């Protein structure tokens, strides 16, 4: 459905993306991940035809991103990574405008989406909170019921409840056979929705895999507040765990899957005041991914 | 041309047009009410108080006695190009470059409308607004003049004067629009558009002050014609062709460049 063919798109600064090549089959949800400045948005600019690549091309449902940009938009929903609205517009006015620009008449889906995200679009967009603006962007990208979605960090600024609503929405769309490319920093979101993951770093794709493979490489992070900090540090270090001591006498440890049992048993050797599991951001995980890549090469 | 977009652009920019219209109509009414057909000498005497160079820079000529040339010199010499120039710079930037700069243009492109159609709509709005501005100014001028001094205004010459000034400003509008299409940043679009147009205006003003500097006036597109001569019956068709042609060329190139360029949105 989305085919990025050997795309190189560089800026005057020399930055950009290089030989990016992947394809997303119809009905698949793909997560597009990478640290800030790695080229995610640049890839999306190429996919949407906002920027003509130096080399390579992209087709969406057989249509060329540059030549057929207008045709593609009929079946595409897009959320920009940095949503900026028109000056001095009301929220409902904006949705109405987008609907008319798409020559759509039916607004039942728009109403459903507004209800799902508990958004009242009345009033000046300028006065909206960041979360409300994001919701408005989501509604505008989904309301014409497109077949393909290209979403650049779609949940940034949303509260956890709304992030969950968004995940539900994506799953529903997935069940309806929609094709989705989504860049994200929220692991939970990617874990729950994506079939595949593409990781980009410094403008080059470093990993393409299904979500299960990525999950297996996940390290668990723990925060331990021992009664005796020195003793605990010594014991953990002696067992070969890499630890760092945080403010308030808290020890932070990252453990890979196969070492968890050993870690728990080692920790049982000292008295613990408090214990917490760190919810890892996806960024932590792919940072580790790069590490492995480098070791192999 | 996309009607929905045109309406949105109108809704977001009519206030700007109103501000400039209000300023110009104020000047127009002051100028009209200052005219005294019985006593041009007293107006001229008042003008003696100002430095001659300043007055000629403003396009005021003290040889004028008839009402239409008086308006041509006093209003259409500087005010009717100077104020709209500011309007053109502001609007030109707003229509394209500003929306690319703040990335809101992305929403327009996420609808099934081509870049060319979108940007042509924006350009047409700018020309439309200049047309409305001068059409209403012309109508108001004729109405005010016939109410205060019935029969004094040469309506035909006044129409020619407004027509040529409108085309001049459409050309200026297209200079601003072109740079707005060319650049992705407001700063650059505003900078180059205002540099070129303001320098041209200043060259014309300086050129008016003394014969030695007349060459500056000739180099500026503002100095191509003399409004007073037009009020007195000079031909304008060559300027109509010139300004229209230049405006169309800038419009077309602006659209073509915008269609091809990379948009960081």
Structural description of this entry:
With 297 residues, chain A is an alpha/beta fold. Chain A has 11 helices and 14 strands. In chain A, strand 7 (148-152), helix 6 and strand 8 (179-183) form a beta-alpha-beta unit. With 265 residues, chain B is an all-alpha fold. Chain B has one domain (3-260). The radius of gyration of chain B is 20 Å and the shape is elongated. In chain B, 46% of the residues are buried. The model of chain B has no long low-confidence stretch (mean pLDDT 91). Chain A binds chain B through residues 45, 48, 50-52, 69-71, 73-74, 76-78, 80, 82-89, 97-98, 100-103, 140-141, and chain B through 2, 4-5, 8, 12, 99, 102-104, 106-115, 260, 262-265.
Task: Kindly list the characteristics that best describe this protein.
heterodimer; A: 297 residues; alpha/beta; 6-stranded mixed sheet; 11 helices; disordered C terminus; B: 265 residues; mainly alpha; elongated
Supply Rg of chain A.
Answer: 22 Å
Give average pLDDT of chain B, whole number. Answer: 91
SSE class of chain A: alpha/beta
Termini separation of chain B comes to 22 Å
Number of strands of chain B: 0
Order of helices and strands of chain B: HHHHHHHHHHHHH
Structural class of chain B: mainly alpha
> Which parts of chain A are unreliable, with pLDDT below 50 for 5 consecutive residues or more?
292-297
Largest sheet of chain B: none
Low-confidence stretches of chain B: none
Q: How many separate structural domains of chain B? A: 1
Termini gap of chain A: 32 Å
Report strand % of chain B: under 5%
Q: What shape does the CA trace of chain A take?
A: globular
Give a short overview:
Chain A is of the alpha/beta class.
């Amino acid at each position: 459905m989305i085919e990025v063919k050997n795309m190189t798109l560089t800026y005057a600064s020399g930055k950009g993306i290089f030989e990016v090549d992947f394809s997303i089959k119809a009905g698949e949800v793909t997560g597009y991940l990478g640290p800030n400045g790695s080229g995610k948005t640049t890839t999306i600019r190429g996919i949407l035809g906002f920027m003509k690549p130096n080399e390579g091309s992209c087709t969406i449902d057989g249509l060329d991103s540059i030549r057929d940009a207008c045709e593609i938009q009929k079946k595409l929903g897009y959320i920009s990574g940095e949503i900026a609205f028109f000056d001095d517009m009301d929220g409902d006015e904006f949705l109405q405008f987008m609907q008319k620009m798409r020559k759509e008449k039916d607004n039942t889906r728009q109403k459903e989406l507004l209800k799902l995200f508990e958004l009242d679009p009345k009033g000046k967009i300028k006065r909206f909170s960041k979360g409300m603006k994001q919701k408005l962007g989501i509604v505008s990208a989904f309301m014409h019921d497109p077949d393909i979605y290209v979403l650049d960090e779609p949940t940034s600024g949303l509260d956890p409840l709304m992030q969950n609503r968004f995940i539900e929405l994506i799953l529903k769309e997935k069940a309806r056979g929609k094709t989705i490319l989504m860049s994200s920093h929220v692991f939970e979101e990617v874990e729950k929705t994506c079939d595949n993951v593409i990781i980009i770093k410094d403008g080059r794709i470093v990993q393409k895999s299904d979500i299960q493979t990525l999950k297996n490489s996940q390290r668990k992070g723990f925060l331990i507040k021992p009664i005796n900090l020195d003793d605990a540090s010594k014991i953990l270090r002696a067992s070969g765990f890499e630890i760092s001591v945080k403010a308030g006498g808290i020890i932070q440890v990252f453990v890979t899957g196969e070492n968890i049992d050993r870690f728990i048993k080692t920790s049982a050797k000292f008295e613990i005041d408090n214990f917490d599991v760190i919810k890892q951001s996806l960024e932590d995980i792919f940072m580790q991914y790069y590490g492995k890549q480098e070791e192999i090469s | 041309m996309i009607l929905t977009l045109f309406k949105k652009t109108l809704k977001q920019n009519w206030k700007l047009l109103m501000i400039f219209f209000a300023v110009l109509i104020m000047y127009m009414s002051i100028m009209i009410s200052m005219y005294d057909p019985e006593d041009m000498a007293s107006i001229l005497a008042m003008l003696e108080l100002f430095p001659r160079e300043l007055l000629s820079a403003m396009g005021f000529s003290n040889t004028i006695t008839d009402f239409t040339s008086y308006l041509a010199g006093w209003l259409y010499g500087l005010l009717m190009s100077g104020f709209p120039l500011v309007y053109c710079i502001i609007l030109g930037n707003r229509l394209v470059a500003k929306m690319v700069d703040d990335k809101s243009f992305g929403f327009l492109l996420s609808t099934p409308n081509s870049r060319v159609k979108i940007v042509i709509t924006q350009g047409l709005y700018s020309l439309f607004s200049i047309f409305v501005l001068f059409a209403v100014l012309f109508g108001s001028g004729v109405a005010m003049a016939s109410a205060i001094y019935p029969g004094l205004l040469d309506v035909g010459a006044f129409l020619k004067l407004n027509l040529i000034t409108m085309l001049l400003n459409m050309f200026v509008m297209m200079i601003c629009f072109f740079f707005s299409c060319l650049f992705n940043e407001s700063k650059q679009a505003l900078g180059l558009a205002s540099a070129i147009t303001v320098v041209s205006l200043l060259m014309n003003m300086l050129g008016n002050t003394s014969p030695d500097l007349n060459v500056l006036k000739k180099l500026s597109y503002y100095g191509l014609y003399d409004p007073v001569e037009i009020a007195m019956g000079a031909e304008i068709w060559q300027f109509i062709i010139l300004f229209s042609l230049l405006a169309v060329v800038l419009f077309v190139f602006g659209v073509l460049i915008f269609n091809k360029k990379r948009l960081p949105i």
